[in-house]
Amino acid sequence: MPGFVGATPRRTSWAVWLAAIVCAVLAIAVIITGIAVFAIYIIYQPKTPYIKVAYAQLSKLVYGHSGLLEIEMVLHLVAENDNKKAHASFSDVSCLLRFHRIDVAELRADTFDVAKNSSLELDYLFQSSSIPLDQAAMETMDVALKQGVVSFDLSGHARTRWRVGVFLSVKFWTYLSCELRFFWSNGSAVNLDCSSKSH
Ligand SMILES: *[C@@H]1O[C@H](CO)[C@@H](O)[C@H](O)[C@H]1NC(C)=O
Ligand SMILES: *[C@@H]1O[C@H](CO)[C@@H](O)[C@H](O)[C@H]1NC(C)=O
Known about the structure:
The chain crosses the membrane at residues 14-44. By secondary structure, the chain is of the alpha+beta class. It has two helices and ten strands. Strands 3, 4, 5, 8, 9 and 10 form a six-stranded antiparallel β-sheet that branches. Strands 1, 2, 6 and 7 form a four-stranded antiparallel β-sheet that branches. The structure holds 2-acetamido-2-deoxy-beta-D-glucopyranose (2 copies). One 2-acetamido-2-deoxy-beta-D-glucopyranose is lined by residues 183, 185-186, 188.
């Protein structure tokens, strides 16, 4: 009986069919998700918002042989949102200014929004108290003043959040880490290039 011979394989083939259908449904779901993500990407072209330093000026530097350093620095940060169709919000913005691994001044900003395809300028004044430098930092400062260029390290971060489409909200940390160098004579920045944009 040919039917009898086929009976056992037929039971197996039901399981195979079921598995095939499940796989096909999953595959279609994956493809649809992929197309949706791709379409959102093409339509919205999401770009990570970032912060950069647009202007920096060392407006005051007092340093005596007692090893105490006091500075004042004007910093214009720009929060950039290159997304053409999405607002971005920046939160937990904080920057730390250091001289030779010694904390000099810290800055925190409130949460703010940047409209789509736009940027926001934030003007800050870093003011330090009298910071005692250690031996290594004092030597570095002596050399810097002799050469006429003083450098500080600026590190910072911000949490950015923006909406892609109606349902997808993207969150990213963006990090800033750069060396700010200033002419001691007039306090203007040397070759300022400081941005948290990932290249
Ligand atoms: C985005 O801004 C640039 C200049 O700031 C402008 O040329 C461009 O048309 C704007 N695009 C949109 C979609 O608003
Ligand atoms: C500051 O001084 C340096 C050299 O001492 C000079 O090259 C630079 O142009 C000056 N900047 C301004 C704004 O005067």
